[in-house]
D-amino-acid dehydrogenase
Amino acid sequence: MQITVLGAGVIGLTSAYYLSRAGHRVTVIDRHAEVASETSFGNGGQLSYSYVAPLAGPGVLSKLPVWLSRRDSPVRFKPSASPEQWRWCIEFALACTKNRSNLTTRRLLSLSFLSRTLMHELVREESTLDFDFSHSGKLVLHRDAHAMQSAVELLEFQRTLGCEQQALTSDECVSLEPALESVRAEIAGGIYTPSEDTADCHRFCKGLESLLRARGIRFEMNTSIDALRRTTRGRVEIVSGDIALDADQIVVAMGTGAQRLLKPLGLRLPIYPLKGYSLTYQLGPRAIAPKLSVTDFTRKVVYARFGDRLRVAGMADLDGYSLEPDPARVAALRAETASLFPFAATDATAASEWTGLRPATPRGAPIIGPTPYRNLWLNVGHGALGFTLATGSAALLVSWLNDVPDPALTENFRFSL
Ligand SMILES: Cc1cc2nc3c(=O)[nH]c(=O)nc-3n(C[C@H](O)[C@H](O)[C@H](O)COP(=O)(O)OP(=O)(O)OC[C@H]3O[C@@H](n4cnc5c(N)ncnc54)[C@H](O)[C@@H]3O)c2cc1C
């Protein structure tokens, strides 16, 4: 089959990889000159297979007043007149129940475990890929006893679903990650997950692109998709400028660009951008920076080591499609880094800054699979977990396209009108 993948972020590229392995002829189209130029460029680098619980959870709504009022809170909501934003918020609020959150966690864990298996297989089989991949393990720090207690309860729940995690004291956290020494007294405890990985998503995408080009996959870069248009017999075609492109099958993997193109087809995707920030520090020879992947749970900031670089990522701002950085948010992220790892960077201001838009669904689960159009497929809405879930999502998509979907997994993520 000839399959056109729209979007060359981590989701489009992994889709292209697994489609081509399944024997399909694949073309990838993107509006940028380079792959991974949008959200897949500067993310937190966490392959966080055991930390997939959605943002929408019990207790979240009570935090809303803080999110609305404080400029340095990890999550910020700027109300706008956009009906799209309000619809998303209402659906998010409805998803903030224990039952829904547990159900989504259970479903995402099955996808993330599949993703882990496939990512490890890919790293083993594609030896030319070089993307700072590390079996780093992950330590999630808690700064208050109450949050630590809730984390232990989540650990017990996740243990029943196959996660192997350990609850650690403050001293045990510092023994495991000596770069935390200066905040020993502030740590209430931590949850350690040895099976988590880290890697540079942008380098992963560039590596996949080279590999795919070498295998004959066509890339049409600098090509903006203006519309998807209904044709005959329940099919759609791709419109770019004056040109209408036909394809046996079309896979939409356009991140936050997907919903605008699908709306005129009568398909409403519940995706809204959640803006985030990252900083990348070049580490000097005397830097004391973490080797483990560390998450500061209270501040919702993640730290990942890529060789001699430290990637710091965080913040979730619900304030539309602008990529414009808010200097106060960047300053808050710098201050967090300086307080947790004061000896990581000799010059605390020397870090490259980046903002990106997470393609977030209210329930926190991606949408993967068929649409009511015979040649149109979706692989979208991965929110804060696109890198983590990319390989498994692509495999699910291929199982749909090859007409062998595993109902136990695929039905959980399919689009419904
Ligand atoms: C601050 C931050 C930290 C994060 N940290 C992590 C993390 O640690 N681990 C993790 O798993 N995930 C993380 N994420 C989430 C992850 O980065 C995303 O889920 C993932 O990158 C989404 O990939 P994508 O391919 O769907 O979207 P994108 O990477 O945005 O790719 C979509 C592509 O579609 C193209 N496109 C869109 N519209 C059009 C159009 N009309 N015509 C042509 N091309 C179009 C775009 O140019 C783009 O290249 C983070 C995100 C942010 C913002």
In short: The longest strand covers residues 272-282. DSSP finds eleven helices and 20 strands in the chain. Residues 2-41+203-271+364-410 form a domain with the FAD/NAD(P)-binding domain fold (CATH 3.50.50.60).
